[in-house]
Amino acid sequence: MHESMNTEPINALVWTGGDHFELVACPFPKLADGETLIRLTTATICGSDRHTVSGRRSQPCPSVLGHEGVGVIQKTNNPVLAEGQRVTFSVTAPCLECDRCSSGRTAKCRSVMKTGHEPFDGAWPLSGTYATHMVLRAHQPVALVPPELGDVPASIASCAGATVMAAFDAARTSAHPIEGKRVLIVGLGMLGLIAVEAAVHAGAQVTATDPNSHRRELAVQLGASTTAPVENSLTTDLAENFDVAMEFSGSPHGVITCVNSLDVGGVAVLAGSVADSPDLNVDPEWIVRGWRTITGIHNYEARHLNQAIEFLSESKIDWNRVTDGPITLDQVPAAFRRPTGEGMRTVVDVVR
């Protein structure tokens, strides 16, 4: 349905399968109670969308991909929001009524809908950030973006940043506090790099590992010591020597390294395995006798988004060094067809 008050065109880049996209003109949406329409200014291309386009991860098709973004509210039926506010938003839109939501696990709501993961011909067509506009659902967490936080880190906060905050929450459950702990970060993509800075900031002794020397250099600049991974084995300084280990690579060797690095009482937080992965062989006796904990996190809670905004507002990460672009919306399909470079995210300047 159209609303005559809007004259600005709404265009969505619809993924139609494989590496094919179609730019589609959309009508102005009729907002339900609690919903909000934002004009996107910046999006960032997350690696999980690359998994979708390459066929490694399944999701509804056709759909508008993209789940990292920032924009300005154009119209809202949410009484706590106002037109003109600059915001970012959660990956998940929960119901807030099911048993999981009631227990505080809204990230795993039984009827959860997800940014950039919904069918274009379904109930939430403008769900993704590869578009000029996006509709936010009634119960979808929204965070105001402070003026000092740039569009790029604000966009990254909505997935990578908030996921890292959730990983630290999981680590603190079994190894509180992080301060003074020996922490291993496995995988130095965007999540791993943010985790390095967060762990150093919390006063941990941080070691980071990644096969990419450029990424290890970035971790050193943020205060970590680093080591290159050794395939199919652990170096002596990694084996059973850490209180907390966080895995962000999603690689089988990275997962094994993370788990096997735990000292007595250690906790491993797995966050990178978000696509099909091989089984992991774990010795139950080793876990039991060592009081070790292995946990996983996927998505995050509303508090983690706000924590990410606050943390990244003070971040020392050089966003120009860790991103590529910016590109325009109509250049997004080509970005998926070429190999990734040194940048951990490709920035999409939606307003151009």
UniProtKB/TrEMBL annotation:
Occurrences of domain Alcohol dehydrogenase-like N-terminal (ranges): 33-143
InterPro entries tied to this protein: ADH-like_C, ADH-like_N, ADH_phosphonate_catab-assoc, GroES-like_sf, NAD(P)-bd_dom_sf
Pfam families: ADH_N, ADH_zinc_N
UniProtKB keywords: Metal-binding, NAD, Oxidoreductase, Zinc
Cofactor list: Zn(2+)
Alcohol dehydrogenase-like C-terminal domain sequence ranges: 191-313
Family annotation (Gene3D superfamilies): Medium-chain alcohol dehydrogenases, catalytic domain, NAD(P)-binding Rossmann-like Domain
EC number, UniProt record: 1.1.1.1
PANTHER family membership: ALCOHOL DEHYDROGENASE 1-RELATED
UniProt cross-references to NCBIfam families, sorted A to Z: HpnZ_proposed
Protein family: Belongs to the zinc-containing alcohol dehydrogenase family.
Name this protein carries in UniProt: alcohol dehydrogenase
Species in which this protein is naturally found: Corynebacterium guaraldiae
